[in-house]
Write a structure and sequence with these properties.
- There is one protein chain.
- About 30% of the residues lie in helices and about 30% in strands.
- By secondary structure, the protein is an alpha+beta fold.
- Strands 2, 3, 4, 5 and 6 form a five-stranded antiparallel sheet that branches.
- The two termini are about 20 Å apart.
Length: about 120
Amino acid sequence: MTERTALAESLPTTSVIRISRASFDPARFAEVDAASKKTAQYIIPAVRRLPGLLHFYSGVSPKGEMVQVSVWDTDEHAAQLNTLKEMVVDGRRDMEAVGVTFTPIFHYPIDWTWTV
């Protein structure tokens, strides 16, 4: 798809979605959920300081999966999270301490948007 269609939100044509996924033993859900809330206290302020962030969402499932989805104006701005200390050192340390295993992170160019 070479042409983008924006139905509900106007985004820069260079926008990307960054998806970070992880898994854990569902029996440790309460620990992981608490750790996620703890890490949010220092990750959110750090991410807010970065240029280019449009949206950021994080969720932890009782089924043993967690995800962070963010929307950035450019791939270069999304890549800032790859070196953000609060994310790659502090957050990773705290989440791995409760048994979280991370999978590779991917960036996806946005082809179209739609909001209900």
